[in-house]
Design brief:
Distance between the termini: 137 Å
Largest sheet: 7 strands, antiparallel
Radius of gyration: 47 Å
Order of helices and strands: HHHHEEEHEEEEHHH
Strand content: 15-25%
Number of strands: 7
Helix content: 25-40%
Length: 339
């Protein structure tokens, strides 16, 4: 057998062996060993053996180069795909809803919103009755009732109530002052639509908070003819409602409506001033002497603003003494005499 034949046979055996093993471009040492054995068997010198091994080495180098190029291209493609995928799939940052913080964070003590002088003028010899509230920083109320007995001439009955309602800003419901404005409008509307009211009129009140309205009407009850005045005022995110009514009982003359309106407006102005003072603005309406038996207006513990996504803790219902209820259920003479 010639040396050329032996060389070609050795190469064919090596390629066949790689094909059987599924090795595309990874020549093994077995091909080289076969070439060496064939060279020794035929007495071929080292030069011929090196020449026989050269094609195998060149083939392996070419395959190795192709394989590295494919891997590099593959890894580069994967990197580009990953980079593109991450940039495309990354969610864009959505803006968090924000709302302006409420201006006022506290309410004054309701029974300390009016000065002793004003209380003596509007409800002489009256005792304060604190309204119940689960959160004094958001809602508070106080009422006073007075029965001035004039003997055989009869008596004069007066009833006064101050309600305070604070609205907190909330990312879902809106800013506190806007919520207070909506409630203010509702309170005015309720006062204008009291069942059984006669001669209802309303007008704006100047110099009382950001906006204020007084609603007045007559209301006939079994005890007598009552004159009702309701002043609704808004200052920032707080709504102040003052109810003041009076009647002449047991033959006493009916009080003058204009006098009662002036008293209600005066009480509303003092209550608004007390709200401002409780939040560090100006002087409180009761600072000139404080209400009878009550300390001067002081701020309730302030609350932090709730502009997070947490649900709002701002009040959503009206105070216990709404204008309609105040007029219809304002203290009767018998109840007033007991107090």
């Amino acid at each position: 057998m010639s040396e050329g034949t032996m060389q070609r046979r050795a190469q064919r055996d090596d390629l066949s062996d790689r094909t059987d093993r599924g090795e595309r471009c990874a020549p093994t040492d077995r091909g080289e060993r076969r070439v060496r054995r064939a060279a020794r068997a035929g007495g071929v010198n080292r030069a011929l053996a090196a020449a026989a091994a050269l094609p195998v080495l060149l083939f392996a180098a070419a395959c190795s180069s192709d394989s590295g190029s494919d891997d590099s291209a593959g890894s580069g493609g994967t990197a580009r795909a990953d980079s593109g995928g991450s940039s495309a799939s990354g969610p864009s940052a959505s803006a968090t809803p924000t709302v302006q913080a409420a201006a006022f964070q506290a309410l004054p003590k309701a029974c300390a919103t009016l000065s002793a002088k004003t209380l003596t003028e509007l409800v002489p010899k009256a005792k304060a009755k604190q309204g119940t509230s689960t959160d004094p920083a958001d809602r508070a109320s106080c009422s006073w009732s007075s029965l001035d007995n004039n003997g055989v001439k009869g008596s004069q009955f007066r009833w006064l109530n101050v309600s305070l309602l604070r609205f907190e800003s909330d990312a879902t419901r809106g800013a506190g002052d806007r919520l207070a404005q909506e409630y203010y409008a509702k309170q005015v509307k309720d006062a204008q639509s009291v069942a059984g009211a006669k001669g209802t009129t309303s007008q704006a009140v100047a110099g009382t908070g950001d906006q204020a309205t007084v609603v007045r009407y007559d209301l006939k009850k079994k005890e007598g003819a009552f004159k009702q005045q309701t002043v609704v005022a808004r200052v920032e995110n707080v709504v102040v409602t003052v109810d003041y009514n009076g009647a002449g009982l047991a033959g006493d003359k009916t009080p003058a409506a204009d006098t009662l309106v002036k008293g209600a407006e005066k009480a509303a102005k003092e209550a608004v001033a007390s709200v401002r003072a409780a939040n560090g603005e100006g002087d409180g309406g009761a600072s000139s002497g404080g209400s009878a038996g009550q300390p001067s207006a002081s701020a309730s513990p302030s609350k932090s603003s709730k502009a997070s996504s947490a649900p709002s803790a701002s009040p959503s219902v009206s105070p216990s003494a709404s204008p309609a209820k105040a007029a219809a259920a304002g203290a009767s003479p018998s109840a007033s005499a007991k107090s």
